[in-house]
């Protein structure tokens, strides 16, 4: 027979243990990751029908290897990777999606592109706006059929204008909202064979000799 408690029956109660914050965080992360995977798989399946892969706003830090596997029998016409947190595009991407005509990499965290991007022989439109580029990668100038380049809203201060003019097919380049130097801005304004979109340059106080 159990001896009576000195505090009386029903008085002693154990408080519910506080949940481990780390376990809760991991549970939330797993749930979010699961949703992201479902979203990516769903969009890959959709792309098999119309050959346009839209992976925008998927919280991607890179292109998952599963995407290459899911799209291995599809000849993509376009790929939209905008509004993610991608820092780089691997050479593997170029190898697997070599026939794309339009590539949107805007609103990410990229500062460079692989040299292999020059091998995208069908690419005609490239959007690298709203990233962290401080210069235009030379590999862009070697893309044989690239007609439109959007590089606006980056941190580009200088452009190799001669390389830009020597690009085989470039027709329009958007360099608006970049901190281009005065000399570079003036040189780009003189380009006649390519339509260059620039933000009007405001003269700094130290440049105004009349002050």
Strand content: 5-15%
In terms of quaternary structure, the protein is single chain
The largest β sheet comes out as: 7 strands, parallel
Number of helices: 5
Mean pLDDT, rounded to whole units? Answer: 86
The H/E string reads: HEHEHEEEHEHE
**What is the number of strand segments?**
7
State the helicity in percent bands.
25-40%
> What gross morphology would you assign?
globular
Give the terminus-to-terminus CA distance.
Answer: 101 Å
Strand order of the largest sheet: 1-2-3-4-5-6-7
Give me the secondary-structure category: alpha/beta
As residue ranges, the low-confidence spans are: 10-15, 24-32
Radius of gyration: 26 Å
Outline the structure in words.
There is one protein chain. With 211 residues, the protein is of the alpha/beta class. It is built from 5 helices and 7 strands. The chain has helices at 21-50, 65-70, 91-96, 161-166, 182-189, and strands spanning 52-54, 78-80, 102-104, 125-127, 148-150, 172-174, 195-197. Strands 1-2-3-4-5-6-7 form a 7-stranded parallel beta sheet. α5 links the parallel β6 and β7.
Can you tag this structure with a few keywords?
211 residues; alpha/beta; seven-stranded parallel β-sheet; 7 strands; 10% strand
Please outline the helices and strands.
Layout: H1 21-50, E1 52-54, H2 65-70, E2 78-80, H3 91-96, E3 102-104, E4 125-127, E5 148-150, H4 161-166, E6 172-174, H5 182-189, E7 195-197
Parallel strand pairs: 1-2, 2-3, 3-4, 4-5, 5-6, 6-7
């Amino acid at each position: 027979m159990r001896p009576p408690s000195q505090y009386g029956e029903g008085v002693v109660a154990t408080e519910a243990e506080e949940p481990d914050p780390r376990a809760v965080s991991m549970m939330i992360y797993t749930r979010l990751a699961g949703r992201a995977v479902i979203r990516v798989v769903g969009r890959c399946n959709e792309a098999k029908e119309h050959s346009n892969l839209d992976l925008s706003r998927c919280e991607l830090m890179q292109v998952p290897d599963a995407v290459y596997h899911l799209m291995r029998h599809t000849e993509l016409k376009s790929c939209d990777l905008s509004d993610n947190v991608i820092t780089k595009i691997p050479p593997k991407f170029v190898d697997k999606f070599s026939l794309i005509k339009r590539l949107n990499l805007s609103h990410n965290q990229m500062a460079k592109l692989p040299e292999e991007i020059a091998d995208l022989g069908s690419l005609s439109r490239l959007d690298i706006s709203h990233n962290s580029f401080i210069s235009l990668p030379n590999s862009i100038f070697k893309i044989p059929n690239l007609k439109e380049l959007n590089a606006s809203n980056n941190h580009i201060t200088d452009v190799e204008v001669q390389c830009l003019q020597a690009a085989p097919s470039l027709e329009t380049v958007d360099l608006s909202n970049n901190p281009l130097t005065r000399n570079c801005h003036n040189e780009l304004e003189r380009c006649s064979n390519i339509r260059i979109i620039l933000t009007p340059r405001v003269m700094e106080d130290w440049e105004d000799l009349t002050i």
